[in-house]
Amino acid sequence: MAASGDEKFGYARIQSTRPQTLGYALADSPAGQAAWIYEKLAEWSDSNYEPEREISRDEMLDNISLYWLTNTAASSARLYRESFRTDFSTQRLDLPVAVSVFPGELFRPPRLWGERVYSRLFYWNEAARGGHFAAFEQPAIFVEELRAAFR
After folding, report:
1. Are 44 and 133 in contact (CB under 8 A)?
2. What is the spatial distance between Cα 41 and Cα 24, in angstroms, rounded to a whole number?
3. How far apart are the first and last CA of the chain?
4. What percent of the chain has pLDDT over 70?
5. Which of 19, 42, 70, 120 pairs as cysteine with 78 (C-beta 3.0–4.6 A)?
6. 35-51 residue pLDDT tens
7. Residue 44 CA to its chain's centroid (Å)
8. Model pLDDT for residues 70-88, shown as the tens digit of each residue
9. What pLDDT sits at residue 6?
10. Long-range contacts, 44-49 (Cβ 8 Å, 24+)
11. Which residues does 19 contact at the CB level (< 8 Å), separation at least 6?
């Protein structure tokens, strides 16, 4: 289990400790940038490691090109460095909250967790399909979740 976690979250360790180094490497190589993003799409989409089943190649290339043309690999990695330096302790949130849980997401919290953390949880649903990039890979389901939450 620990080895699986180390392997699955190695990207987070690299991005949280060496975002600039990774950013320079990805900014120097369009093939490297493409491989980095494609790997995440494969692992984090609800596609059994075949992102082409859910996202067209053109859409993936558009996404990869956005990172490449704007040279934002380092800044997107830096978010991990900044986040990992914060306190991840549970803090209650007293705002209206809607939650959609997608089956292909890396972490799928139980409803009980949501009820404990969000005092004003008004919507909770476990969607039929979708992963970490739900709005990208399953836009119709994502929009339906938004509509259902705020209906």
Report:
1. yes
2. 21
3. 41
4. 95
5. 19
6. 999 999 999 999 999 99
7. 7
8. 999 889 888 888 888 877 6
9. 65
10. 44/104, 44/105, 44/106, 44/131, 44/132, 44/133, 45/104, 45/131, 45/132, 45/133, 45/137, 46/102, 46/103, 46/104, 46/129, 46/130, 46/131, 46/134, 46/137, 46/138, 47/104, 47/131, 47/137
11. 74, 77, 78, 80, 81
Residue 109 in tokens: 């919290």
Task: Output the CA–CA distances (angstroms, integers) from residue 62 to 49, 77, 138, 141, in the order listed.
Answer: 19, 19, 16, 21
- Rounded Cα distance between 136 and 86, Å, is 28
CA distances from 20 to 36, 65, 76, 78, 126 (A): 15, 19, 10, 7, 36
Cα 109 to the center of its chain, rounded Å: 14
77: nearest Cα among 124, 150, 27:
27
List the structure tokens of 59: 């859409």
